[in-house]
């Protein structure tokens, strides 16, 4: 990838990610509390819906930037002709690799954020320190496999670059559908990240976590938080892809005008 394109993807992805995460954070908190094992109201209900936002604010830009830079770079390496029938496969592979890389940043931020969301009285730094003291670095990566699986499946909705309004509308509809389908994986990820250290759920086994939810709460438990998740990702798809395309186009145009 050329340097202007690389820089534009980096900045545009970061700006779009921060915008979405901060604007829609209350919906994410409500979703997490609905999925938590202690139940919505015991986890905080509608109180303190911005608990954990510092973790998101810190991790959002590098996470989003890492995804889109990797996504663009892998597409550039594969360099499939736009008319080729392999183009969708190229986008799917690029998006999946992008999620694997981005999750190296996303998962630690997500672990701290979710624990803060269900313990609004505890500060973000306090939670971060406790995880390091009690579980070490591996504690920050609890739920990595379930997060990568969830995000890789969701990221396959990526399509070719079109006008920003088309990207935004398509992103909203595709994101809402993908959010509903992958909700059980999101529930498993939440349970794994919130589980007490040393418990069977904390081991990170996705199937085991799903089975435990099914056994105790049935189908409703597997789809806990589906509506705020769909709302957040639909709106997020609209905002993210629209802001990304617009910002990247603006930066590339600015680069061409610069001497």
In total, the number of domains comes to: 2
Q: Span between N and C termini?
A: 21 Å
How much of the residues is beta strand, in percent?
under 5%
- Helix-and-strand structural type: mainly alpha
**Global Rg:** 19 Å
How would you explain this protein's 3D organization?
The chain has helices at residues 3-23, 25-35, 53-78, 87-117, 124-135, 137-140, 144-155, 164-181, 183-194, 206-222, 226-257. It has 259 residues and is mainly α. The protein folds into 2 domains: 1-42 and 162-258, no CATH class; 51-159, no CATH class. The chain is globular. Belongs to the mitochondrial carrier (TC 2.A.29) family.
Topology:
Elements (H helix, E strand, L loop, with lengths): L2 H21 L1 H11 L17 H26 L8 H31 L6 H12 L1 H4 L3 H12 L8 H18 L1 H12 L11 H17 L3 H32 L2
Keywords: Membrane, Mitochondrion, Mitochondrion inner membrane, Repeat, Transmembrane, Transmembrane helix, Transport
Catalytic activity: S-adenosyl-L-homocysteine(out) + S-adenosyl-L-methionine(in) = S-adenosyl-L-homocysteine(in) + S-adenosyl-L-methionine(out)
Membrane topology: Multi-pass membrane protein
Q: What keywords describe this structure?
A:
single chain, 259 residues, mainly alpha, 2 domains, 11 helices, 76% helix, repeat
């Amino acid at each position: 990838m050329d340097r202007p394109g690389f820089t534009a993807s980096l900045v545009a992805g970061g700006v779009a990610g921060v915008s979405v995460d901060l604007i829609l954070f209350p919906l994410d908190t409500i979703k997490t509390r609905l999925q938590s094992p202690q139940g919505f109201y015991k986890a905080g209900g509608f109180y303190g819906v911005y608990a954990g936002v510092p973790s998101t604010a810190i991790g959002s830009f590098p996470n989003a930037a890492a995804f889109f830079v990797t996504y663009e770079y892998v597409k550039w390496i594969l360099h499939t002709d736009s008319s080729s029938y392999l183009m969708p496969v190229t986008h799917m592979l690029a998006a999946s690799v992008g999620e694997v890389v981005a999750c190296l940043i996303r998962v630690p931020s997500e672990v701290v954020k979710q624990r803060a969301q269900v313990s609004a009285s505890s500060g973000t730094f306090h939670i971060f320190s406790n995880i390091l003291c009690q579980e070490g670095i591996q504690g920050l990566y609890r739920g990595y496999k379930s997060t990568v699986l969830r995000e890789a499946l969701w990221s396959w909705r990526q399509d070719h670059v079109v006008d920003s309004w088309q990207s935004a509308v398509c992103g909203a509809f595709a994101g809402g559908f993908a959010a509903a389908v992958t909700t059980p994986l999101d529930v498993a990820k939440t349970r794994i990240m919130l589980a007490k250290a040393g418990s069977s759920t904390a081991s990170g086994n996705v199937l085991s976590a799903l089975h435990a939810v099914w056994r105790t709460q049935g189908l409703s438990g597997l789809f806990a938080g589906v509506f705020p998740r769909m709302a957040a990702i639909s709106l997020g798809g609209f905002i993210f892809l629209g802001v990304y395309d617009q910002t990247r186009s603006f930066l590339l145009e600015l680069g061409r005008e610069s001497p």
